[in-house]
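Quick illustration, no need to memorize.
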Amino acid sequence: MHTLDPHCQALLGSFDELLPTLQEMEGTLLREIKAVLAEAGLLVASLESRVKGRDSLAGKLELKGSKYKGIADITDLVGLRVITFYSDDVDKVASAIERLYDIDWENSVDKRKLLEIDSFGYLSLHYICKDKRFPVRFEIQMRTLLQHAWANMNHDTGYKSGVDIPKRYKRAMSRIAGMLELVDDEFSRIRMELTDYRRRVQALVKSGNLDEVSLDRDSFKSYLELRPFDGLNKRIAAVNQAEIQEVSLLPYLNIFAFLGCKTLGDIARLVKGYSEGAYQLACYQIGLTDLDIIASSLGPQDLCITYILKSGGGKAGIRRMFDLLNGASESNELMAGLLVEQSKDLAFMNQ
C-alpha cells in the first residue's frame, strides 16, 4: 500500500479519469508506428507497448510526486519500445519516429552517448514525444535485441537497484555487457559488408564479368535474374507448343557446385557447351507426348544430366544429382538408370 499526500492522490485520480483515453492512445500509436516502420522497410525484432499500471504510478508518485504539477508532466504514462536486430537500425527507427511526432528534445535522452570510454552498460535511445491529438506526452524507447537482453538481465540481477553487490559480480556483468556491445557492432559491420558484396556481385553479373564472380547463393540469385536458361527452355517448349511454368531454380545451386562449378563463368560455359545435348534429351522425353506444360527447371535439369553423362559420371552421377534435388530415395536409382538407357543412342553421346 502506498502512502500518498493529497497532491499525489489528486494526480492518481486524474490518471484514473484519463485511463480510457490512454488505452485508446496506446492502440493508435502502436498502429501508426507499425505502419511507418513497414513503409520504411524496417524489419524489427519486436514492437511493444503499455499503459503505465496504476500501482506502478502510485509507487512513482510516492517517491517523487512533488516534481509533477499535473498529470501531463508525467511523460511515461504511455510507453512503446522498438527492438531492432541491428544497432544501426536504431537510428533508422528514430528517423522514422521523428517524421511521425514532435520530439521533446529537452527530456529525450540518448543513453548510448552517456557511457564513459572505459565503461559498459545499458544502451538505449529514449524519445519523449508529443502530438496535438493526445493530452499527454509519451515515451518511445529504441534499442537492439542484445541491448534489450542486457537491460532485462540487469534488472533481474538488481544491478541498477542501488544494492551493493560484490565486485566480482559487477566485473562479470561488465564483461558480459562488453561482449554484447562488441557482438552488436560486429553484426552491423557484417551486414554492411554483405550488402556491399551483393552490390559488387550484381554489378559484375550485369557487366558480364562472370568469371570474376564466385558461385554462392547471392551470386546465383543475381545470375538467375539474367534468365540464363530461358533460351533452352523456350526451345524445348516449342517441341509441343507447351507453356513454361516458372519454378524456383535456387536448388540447382547445389547441383552446379556438385558438378564442379566455382564461378558463374563455369555455369555460363556449361550452358553454352551442353545445351544441344540437353535439347536432344528433352525431345526424347516429351516429343511423343501431349505434354503442354513444362517446368522452367526442365532445361537446367537436362543440361546437368547431359554434362554428367558426357563427363563419365553415368548412373551414379545422375542419382547423386536427384538425391541433392529431391532427397535420397530408391526411385532416384530407377530414374537414373532409365535416363542412361534413354540417352545412350542420342547424337550428343556420340559427339
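The CA atoms of residues 108 and 127 lie 5 Å apart.
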